[in-house]
Amino acid sequence: MSTSSGRATTGDGSGTGIRLHAPAPGWALGADVVVVGSGVAGLTAALRCAAAGRRTVVVTKARLDDGSTRWAQGGIAAALGEGDTPEQHLDDTLVAGAGLCDEAAVRLLVTEGPGAVRRLIATGAEFDRDADTGEIELTREGGHHRRRIAHAGGDATGAEISRALVEAVHAAGIETVENALVLDLLQDAEGRTAGVTLHVMGEGQHDGVGAVHAPAVILATGGMGQVFSATTNPSVSTGDGVALALRAGAEVSDLEFVQFHPTVLFLGPDAEGQQPLVSEAVRGEGAYLVDADGVRFMTGQHELAELAPRDIVAKGIMRRMQEQGAHHMFLDARHFGRQMWEQRFPTILAACRSHGIDPVTEPIPVAPAAHYASGGVRTDLRGRTTVPGLYACGEVACTGVHGANRLASNSLLEGLVFAERIAEDIVADAPASAGPGVPVPFRGPLLPAEARLDIQRIMTQGAGVLRSADSLRAAADALDSLYAAALYDLEMHGKTAEPGVDTWEATNLLCVARVLVAAARRREETRGCHWREDHPDREDTTWRRHLVVRLSRTEKRALVVTETDTADFPSVDTPLRTPVHPILSQES
């Protein structure tokens, strides 16, 4: 990228020298921009870049409409209603973020958000409207003091947004590569982005490992919920974007702040994989949480009771479960009646009934499960990372908007707003043409596919909703043992797991798990969705700051965790700074 962009890089920008074991690319495409991911962030960025005449390729891990956006139930938050203002939306977001939001990023989000939603509607998304006035219907969710959540299909907002954007991408003739797992960032000799390598699964125009050469790469790969045993995330959410960025030399921040959604349908204490979500909008419409005796335990714990920010509700549920020795609590919405359930929440109703629970006649058993990564690849307010030409938006990114705990339904809005800003940056200041990717000196070991379950169980037990020094130390030791065993086989015997989707995903999961645990061990306080039993209080004097993690350039086995001077992210005109105060180098 040209120097006028204001981007500063850390070190020499040449990445870590670590790449996944994979065959050499057997085919290649050329583009101006490659977008990795097909949720609201990725497709919005692709549409804006293509509309400005940039040759754009979208790479997605499954089908275009099969990412995390499709599963979003509640809606998208914006100050669209009468009497609501961006300032009020800002205030609610800052409170939910527990002192770690970047106010400049939040202000940008809430002021540009309403316009971004209207442009989404112009793209073809149809939101639920009042039958009499024709105005967009708005509901409330946790942490919001006003009705400002626009929804579609009752509780199928993500599916409608995905439908509209996918149709727009097809209509625009944007080239897409589906069923493709991105592997690594291509970089030239100066460390500038030169594209990505990827593996296409199944039949199609391309198959096997290939490359898309481009001077600009937009990571919109979504989350990493599959690092835990039970999550609301789809099976494709294996942290691939964060792992790729780390291997390329980028910084990640705030990865310890994983939001556990309070009300996930409880399917048993040993349930694993993607779990059905019971949207916060159900509580927004008047459902309440009760224990087995029918007692509303959130009343009196917060002024908003069941509509407190998610971290507070999740903690309230966990405390009640501990007090009563229970595996779950209940969400009671029987007073809605059959008609409201069928019209307002048809998706949730069907999911509950498919598991033998009828919310019309009985309370819904619920418990917290991993839901959203508030942290991710560190960016500035134009989505630029510390690697020239590499951008990130959506859940994979850490823009400073969410702080220590995402406000409900801000995620779709963040994807919209920052995707548009990335496209503007690329169009206004096109990245300089990068040379071809150069060979790298070291390829890290691949984990066997079965390690995925080991990682998930280690993380659930040691770094879940409740954390402590002992649990996190045990998790770190177990994760490091997995890595050390794989590295030993590689260095001593020249052996590693067979390259393939399962082993690449397991390796990415281990990477993000180790980073998450390293940051969680360092943050010795309870803040937002990071809950340390051994440090139960929030410590603003010591910990109102961010932890930034990168892979060591010199030690292939090290995670280097540093902390920023203040809680502030850079402004739009200020480049990302090299972090200061090294505080932890964790060797495996």
UniProtKB/TrEMBL annotation:
It catalyses: L-aspartate + O2 = iminosuccinate + H2O2. The keyword Transmembrane helix does not apply. SUPFAM superfamilies: FAD/NAD(P)-binding domain, Succinate dehydrogenase/fumarate reductase flavoprotein C-terminal domain, Succinate dehydrogenase/fumarate reductase flavoprotein, catalytic domain. The active site is at residue 310. Pathway: Cofactor biosynthesis; NAD(+) biosynthesis; iminoaspartate from L-aspartate (oxidase route): step 1/1. Residues 453-557 form the Fumarate reductase/succinate dehydrogenase flavoprotein-like C-terminal domain. Catalyzes the oxidation of L-aspartate to iminoaspartate, the first step in the de novo biosynthesis of NAD(+). This is L-aspartate oxidase. It comes from Streptomyces venezuelae. The lineage of its organism: Bacteria, Bacillati, Actinomycetota, Actinomycetes, Kitasatosporales.
